[in-house]
From TrEMBL:
BP-aspect Gene Ontology terms: peptide transport
UniProt keyword annotation of Metal-binding present: no
Domain Solute-binding protein family, first and last residues per copy: 69-396
Name of protein: ABC transporter substrate-binding protein
Keywords: Signal
Subcellular location, record wording: Periplasm
């Protein structure tokens, strides 16, 4: 072979290699929390939706990256003049990943299961207003409500409202079968979940052929994994102090957006002494929000004074109701007969905002005489003891469900707030469709929670992600708990 031929052959091989690298069709996404199981319709763990929402499971409607609610499995719908009956027309040709058809019977099964008396759906209240689900034909289903609900289409976009099938429901926690652009492939517990492209997807197909979700809970290990390029994306990066280093490195892009996550010092309103509003108010005035944002999140986060996202048009700034004032906190404790303070527990799940923020809050509470015993718990333990068992005094968690102020109208919810006036206000909000009136009611609701000091309202969680520079199509903001990969690709 001549020297020229060797050079041409080498050049061709290099071009092929370069082309193959440019045409990457897989991605590795890291997250801090691993799902406890894989059924989004029977648990409060946001990590389930973070992996499966839109990728594997779909609902009648869905959220887009900008927060808009658009058609999902329902291509269209009609609403009766009285606002009580929704008639959904389903997309035709939709198949579950096991090869069975998705039709109106599956919609009826899913909604009836979610609202059943024995339902374990974490957001069962979203479906409480449904009085009937009827199959008209395989592609048409009607849903009847007891009263108009201005949030109904929004509620159907939640991960808790995805459509599942009776044929695969028994194994859904370990072998989820949905209708999405990716299908579940494998789960190595403690390590990773693998998804594969759904070649028979009814809608716009995914660009990627496969996706792997890796679970890295330790912030130091997260930093190391990204720097070594062992992962392509880290969604919800847990070490914000490292972000400037990534921003200065041309190998990476840093995405800073907003979430629906109200980060709060959740308070057990039925456990003494927190059943006294003066004690809850004292706790609120003992907290320096900005110190927590700076110390735990390195400045990323927006202070909040109620359970509402600052980017929502109905938001009202109520942070002044619980301004940092240790002297006032001590005076309130004395007024409530606890001048010497008291002891309580502070349960901290794994996320950095909780573990780091908890250390700061415990020190701040100690300054006014409240001794909070820190109890670090894993996520499954938090769900069992705090969320379901209500066995706690204080805890820190970010409520990342979209526009979820309605949870305060549920006395059985884990912080056990029971206010009949607030419950009536939420009932009125659900029945109201006029945008202006809805904003007024939402602002009233925020004010009630702020003035009742139900929880310690800390900050709106920022969405912090790090990705390789040539990954495109990721959501910057997080309007729901999702790492939607359906439109993600590698730049050519």
């Amino acid at each position: 072979m001549s020297f020229r031929s060797i050079i041409l052959a080498a050049s061709s091989a290099l071009a092929l290699t370069t082309g193959a690298a440019a045409a990457k069709d897989s991605i590795i996404v890291a997250m801090q929390l691993e799902p406890p199981h894989l059924d989004p319709t029977s648990a409060a763990a946001g990590a389930i939706d973070s992996v499966l929402y839109s990728n594997v499971f779909e609902g009648l409607t869905r959220f887009m990256g900008d927060g808009a609610v658009v058609p999902g499995l329902a291509e269209s719908w009609d609403i009766s003049s009285d606002g009580l009956t929704y008639t959904f027309k389903l997309h035709s040709g939709v198949m579950f990943h096991d090869g069975t058809a998705m039709d109106s019977e599956d919609v009826k099964f899913s909604l009836d299961r979610a609202r059943a008396e024995d339902s374990t759906n974490a957001q069962k209240a979203l479906f409480a207003g449904i009085t009937d689900v009827s199959v008209v034909d395989p592609q048409t289903v009607t849903v009847t409500l007891a009263e108009p609900n201005g949030n109904f289409l929004f509620n159907l976009a939640w991960g808790d409202a995805v459509i599942v099938a009776p044929e695969s429901i028994d194994d859904i926690k370990t072998n989820p079968v949905g209708t999405g652009a990716f299908k579940f492939s494998n789960w190595v517990q403690g390590d990773k979940i693998e998804l594969a492209k759904n070649g028979d997807y009814w809608g716009t197909p995914a660009v990627l052929n496969s996706a792997t979700f890796k679970f890295i809970s330790d912030p130091t290990a997260a930093f190391a994994a990204v720097m070594a390029e062992d992962v392509d994306v880290f969604s919800g990066f847990p070490a914000p102090e490292n972000l400037p280093q990534f921003e200065a490195d041309p190998r990476f892009q840093v995405l800073v957006g907003s979430t629906e996550g109200e980060t709060i010092l959740s308070t057990n309103n039925q456990q003494p002494p927190f059943d006294d509003v003066r004690i809850r108010q004292a706790v609120a005035h003992a907290i320096d929000r900005q110190a927590i944002i700076d110390g735990a999140m390195f400045g990323y986060g927006t202070p909040i004074g109620s359970h509402f996202a600052p980017h929502n048009p109905a938001y009202v700034d109520l942070t002044g109701n619980s301004a940092y004032d240790p002297a006032k906190a001590k005076a309130l404790l004395a007024e409530a007969g606890m001048a010497d303070g008291f002891e309580t527990t502070l349960h901290l799940p794994p996320p950095s905002y909780a573990r780091r923020g908890g250390e700061i809050i415990a020190a701040q509470l100690a300054e006014v005489g409240i001794k909070a015993e820190i109890i670090n718990v894993e996520w499954a333990q938090w769900l069992e003891t705090v969320f379901r068992g209500k066995d706690f005094g204080l805890t820190i968690v970010s409520h990342t469900e979209p526009m979820d102020i309605g949870i305060y109208a549920r006395p059985e919810y884990y912080f056990q707030y029971d206010n009949k006036g607030f419950q009536e206000l939420m009932t009125g909000l659900n029945a109201t469709t006029d945008p202006g009136k809805r904003i007024d009611l939402m602002q009233q609701a925020q004010t009630i929670l702020s003035e009742d000091y139900v929880n310690g309202y800390l900050f709106q969680l920022a969405q912090l992600s790090v990705a390789k520079a040539d990954v495109q199509g990721l959501w910057t903001n997080a309007p729901t708990q999702a790492t939607d990969l359906t439109a993600v690709s590698w730049a050519k």
